[in-house]
């Protein structure tokens, strides 16, 4: 998502693109991978010693709520990635915490049909499948 798109989304939701939010988004963009709040904090605190861990957590929570950032829950804690607005889900290894994207929604039609019959409007969903990757299964 480009900076103008982010500005538009934040404004639509009633928020500003503060310097801390911009830094968090840029940190995620530059890493090119998922990162924990601690990793984001450590990357940002090198150039901005006044940023706090609370600020990182608070902004990650907000950016997740409004759909800029996607959170993936792992046994060791959450990791975050920019939400590229492509509909995808994840396979998560419970041993090594490898995360593999599923590039389609295997149950979208079922969810929408059920939601419609219940009079429910679906705004989004999270689908994470937990198991063991091939490498970890071989080790056991």
Give short descriptive properties of this protein.
140 residues; alpha+beta; Arc Repressor Mutant, subunit A; Dna Ligase, domain 1; 2 domains; 3-stranded mixed β-sheet; two-stranded antiparallel sheet; 6 helices; 5 strands; 18% strand
Any overview of this molecule?
This protein has 140 residues and is an alpha+beta fold. The protein has 2 domains: 3-82, Winged helix-like DNA-binding domain superfamily/Winged helix DNA-binding domain (Arc Repressor Mutant, subunit A, Orthogonal Bundle), CATH 1.10.10.10; 89-139, Ferric-uptake regulator, C-terminal dimerisarion domain (Dna Ligase, domain 1, 2-Layer Sandwich), CATH 3.30.1490.190. Helices cover 44% and strands 18% of the residues. The protein contains 6 helices and 5 strands; from the N terminus they run ααααββββαβα. It has helices at residues 3-12, 19-31, 37-45, 53-65, 108-117, 134-139, and strands at residues 69-74, 77-82, 89-93, 99-102, 128-131. Helix 3 (37-45) crosses helix 4 (53-65). The longest helix has 13 residues, at 19-31. The radius of gyration is 17 Å and the shape is flat. The model has no long low-confidence stretch (mean pLDDT 88).
